[in-house]
Amino acid sequence: MGHWEEGLRGDFWLRVGVSLLCGFIVGAERQVRGKPVGIRTSILICLGTMTYVQLAQLPGNTSEHTARVLGQIISGIGFLGGGVILTQGGLVFGVTSAAVVWMLAAIGAAIGLDHYGVAFFTCIIAVGVLLGVEKLETAMKGLRKGVHAPVSSKIMSD
User: Fold this and answer.
1) What is the average pLDDT value for the chain, to the nearest integer?
2) What is the pLDDT of residues 71-95, one digit of tens each?
3) Residue 36 CB neighbour total at 10 angstroms
């Protein structure tokens, strides 16, 4: 098995599946109630967290230094992501964009640690979540409540 494949064992895919499912369940409840952190954001947060934890545990990444670097990245990116969240007229914008920034950092960390397969497949999964949930929202009108309702005067979009 090549170095980049080490992180893509069956347990990786199980963790991805559980991250997707748990993020979907919690996000659906939030979205149906019209709350800002919906399906996409919840899935991306679960998936990003799982990716960071897995990166720290992959062969060659077990040093205390690697864990410290990952921790600092997570904190810094959280601060950066917070900067894209805005409120306007009682609506919250940018929560999904902040989660995407955080996911991109997880993908970048995977690349930086030479885990290209993890990075690539996490990237594909994240885009699938963003596009797939949008299609689900279109198909199931109940998911378009509160902040998730289409607003013609919406200046910014997630």
Assistant:
1) 80
2) 888 888 888 778 878 888 877 888 8
3) 19
Place of tokens 């306007």: 88
Give the number of other Cβ atoms within 10 Å of residue 108's Cβ.
13
d(CA 109, CA 15) in angstroms, rounded, equals 18
Confidence tier at 21 by pLDDT (50, 70, 90): very high
Beta bridge partners of 93: 86
Q: Is the pTM of this model over 0.90?
A: no
Do the Cβ atoms of 42 and 23 come closer than 8 Å?
Answer: yes
What six digits make up the tokens of 111?
A: 């690349």
Which pLDDT value is given to residue 153? 43
Structure-token pair, residue 39: 């399906």
Categorise residue 96: left if φ over 0, alpha if ψ from -120 to 50, beta otherwise: alpha
- Nearest in space to 45 (alpha carbons), one of 85, 92, 97, 103: 103
Which DSSP letter does residue 4 get? Answer: G
Q: Kindly provide the residue ranges of all beta strands, DSSP E only, lying in 35-90, ordered along the sequence.
A: 86-88
